[in-house]
Specification:
alpha/beta; TIM Barrel; 8-stranded parallel sheet; 8 strands; 45% helix; lyase; Dihydrodipicolinate synthase family protein; DapA-like; Aldolase_TIM
């Protein structure tokens, strides 16, 4: 059992596919190695970026186990459970995901209870899950789908004080909310990871542990660099890099995750097909050219770190 997860970049891993849209596990291996080599502190697989809702239950298990085995202890790995409904079914799925060896099984905040459930009902369901799976570390992800359930600060405090939660992926996009949550998390095991690159630096200055978001999927080295230097006295360079990464995120938002796969193919040693089960529309020359341009811009900018992305 890992006491606390490490600070830094936590990519929400993309899932590469073959022509028939089956998972390309050779590409998963290459991507896992690449992310770790470029400084990822940990890996979040079976996430929304992994197209978790478009993976079968068996595929989720196989993918989580595969990434965990490929990481081979170099960095911790976490994975989501997409179970919903009765707490027994959710606990059973948590137990199954835990057998893959991941360091934590991540609950989707909006799947734990129906949309109209009270916060006390949400806590009651999670408490039952905890009792049913002793010894398993957990996390919480405020996933925007099927809808975003932002937890109140008193619920965040309760999660932290259980001692069982190690990861909280915050999607509030509010520095004030994150600061309030960090104040109640304190020095517990639970770490808060910001999903929004635009506020990464101030959130880390407030006590956040790092970024778990789009930018880390495609430029893990730059996100890691920002995390390491977020508290530097001179903020000129770190804020410059954060601005560039904010532009990168904006450039891939429209056709994500295919756009991120296209950008990886244009900017790294990885050879990816821009294919998605979730959003199957293709990336043509018109849509792809701005992504090529952003990749070229990042290569040309002097961002104060060794360029670990091989030119194509």
């Amino acid at each position: 059992m890992m006491h606390r997860l490490p600070d830094g970049a936590w990519p929400v891993m993309l899932t590469p596919y073959r022509d028939d849209l089956s998972i390309d596990f050779d590409a998963v291996d290459e991507y896992t190695d690449w992310l770790i080599e470029l400084g990822a502190a940990g890996l979040f697989t079976v996430s929304l970026s992994s197209e978790m809702y478009d993976l079968s239950g068996d595929e989720q298990l196989v993918l989580a186990r595969h990434v965990r085995e490929r990481a081979a202890g170099r960095v911790p790995v976490v994975a989501s459970t997409t179970a919903r409904g009765d707490w027994r079914a959710q606990a059973d799925r948590v137990a199954k995901i835990a057998t893959t060896g991941v360091e934590a099984v991540v609950l989707i905040s909006s799947l734990v209870t129906p949309p109209d459930a009270t916060d006390s009902a949400w806590i009651d369901t999670v408490e039952r899950i905890l009792d049913a799976v002793p010894g398993v570390d957990l996390g919480v992800y405020e996933c925007p789908l099927p809808y975003k359930r932002l937890l109140p600060v008193q619920t965040v405090r309760w999660l932290a004080q259980t001692g069982r939660f190690t990861l909280y992926k915050d999607t509030s996009h509010s520095l004030a909310t994150m600061t309030e949550r960090l104040n109640v998390i304190g020095d517990t095991r639970m770490r808060l990871y910001n999903a929004a690159i635009a506020s990464l630096v101030p959130s880390m200055q407030a006590g956040a542990a790092g970024l778990s978001g789009y930018a880390a999927n495609v430029y893990p080295d730059l996100v890691s660099w920002v995390c390491r230097h977020a508290n530097d006295a001179d903020q000129t360079d770190v804020l410059r890099v954060q601005r560039v990464l904010t532009m990168v995120e904006h450039s891939i938002n429209l056709r994500y995750p295919s756009s991120a796969k296209f950008l990886l193919d244009a900017s790294s040693r990885l050879h990816w097909r821009a294919r998605s089960r979730w959003k199957p529309e293709s990336i043509g020359d018109h849509e792809g050219e701005p992504l090529r341009q952003i990749a070229q811009l990042v290569r040309e900018l002097d961002l104060g770190r060794a360029d670990l992305h091989a030119a194509r």
